[in-house]
C-alpha cells in the first residue's frame, strides 16, 4: 500500500499539506499529510467538509510516514464527502469547438472529422481571441449568427454566463485506484482531465485536487438536454488523490499555471497522451467560483471542476472515427503540484454499486460514536 500513496502524491509532498479520505475496516476516515506524516483526523473531524468548514485541518492521531503507506486493510477514497459536486463546461476554446461538433454531428463520431475542419477554419481564431462577456465577444456572436454558425455552446463559451452544472450526487464520487464507468450503451465517450477547486460555504477556495469528468459525447451531442445522462452515471466522477491545501508553497496562482497531463493505456496496446493547460482557460478560476456560488448557498461547501482543454480526436479503430473508451483502459491524470489520479475504465452497469449514501454514512458515524464530529 506504500506505493499507492507515494505514486499518487506530488514530488514535493514533504512541503505540502494534504487532506483526504480512506476506507478503513470500520468505515470512512479523514486523513491528513503534514510534513510527510500521515494522520487520522477522524477523532477531531469525521468529514472533510466539516474539517474545511471549521478550519480543523491539523491534529488527530499520527499514523506514520506517508512513505510507509496506509495501514493494512485501508484504501484511498475520493477526498470529498458532503460537498456538492459542481462542474463548469466549455471553458476553453477547443472544448467549445468540440461541443459544437458534437451538436452538429448529432452524436455521430463518424461525422466529426469533416465538421471539425470546417468549424476550426470559421470560428477557431475568433473564440481564442475574445474575453467571455466582453463587447468584442458580443460582436463575434452577432457575426456568427449572421453566418448561421451560432450554437448554444458558443453562448456559454463567450457569453456573460458560464455553464455550471451538477456533476454527481453528494458522496458518489470515486477516488484514486477505483474503477470509473461509462454507460454500456455509449459508443463515443472520453475522459476529461480537470483541476477541481475545493471551496467552503462562503465560496473561499482553500485547495485543489484532480478530477475526471467522464463524458459521453454521443449522448450530449444528440441533445444538450441529455447532459445529465452524459455526465452523471455510476462511477462517472473520479476525484483525487488528495486535496492539496493552499499555503505559502501552493496557491491559486499554481492552479492557474497548472499543466494537467493525461495518459490512456488501452488493453490492446493503444496509447494516447494529452494535456490540459490551465493557462489557456477562457475564464479565470475565481470567476467560475463566483458564477457557481451566484445566489446559492452550500452549507457543506462545494467543489468545482474547472473544465478541460483536452478533447481527444486521435483515431483509435477506424479512420475518422476519433477516440472512444474501451473496457480496461487505464486513465492517468497528473499534475506536478497536485498529484496523480489513476482509474481503470469499466461500464457504469458493471462498476461497484454506489452504496454509501448519506443515510448509510450517518449510521456508520453513529455506530462509531462520531456523529457529533461531522
Task: Average the pLDDT over all residues and give the rounded result.
Answer: 91
Beta-strand fraction estimate: 25-35%
Class of secondary structure makeup: alpha+beta
Overall CATH architecture of the largest domain: Alpha-Beta Complex
The SSE order reads: HEEEHEEEHHHHEEEEEEHHEHEEHEEEH
In the CATH hierarchy, the third-tier topology of the largest domain is known as: Fumarylacetoacetate hydrolase, domain 2
- Uncertain ranges: none
| Largest sheet features | 11 strands, mixed
The N- to C-terminal Cα distance equals 27 Å
What's the CATH first level of the largest domain? Answer: Alpha Beta
Overall form: globular
Can you put this structure into words, describing what you see?
Keywords: Hydrolase, Metal-binding. Residues 171-345 form the Fumarylacetoacetase-like C-terminal domain. Belongs to the FAH family. The chain folds into 3 domains: 2-77 and 359-373, no CATH class; 84-92 and 163-354, Fumarylacetoacetase-like, C-terminal domain (Fumarylacetoacetate hydrolase, domain 2, Alpha-Beta Complex), CATH 3.90.850.10; 94-158, no CATH class. With 374 residues, the chain is an alpha+beta fold. It has helices at 2-6, 48-54, 93-105, 112-129, 135-146, 152-158, 217-222, 227-231, 252-256, 285-293, 358-367, and strands at residues 17-24, 27-34, 37-40, 61-65, 75-76, 84-89, 163-168, 179-182, 189-190, 193-199, 205-213, 215-216, 237-245, 259-265, 271-277, 302-305, 330-335, 339-347. The mean pLDDT is 91. It is built from 11 helices and 18 strands.
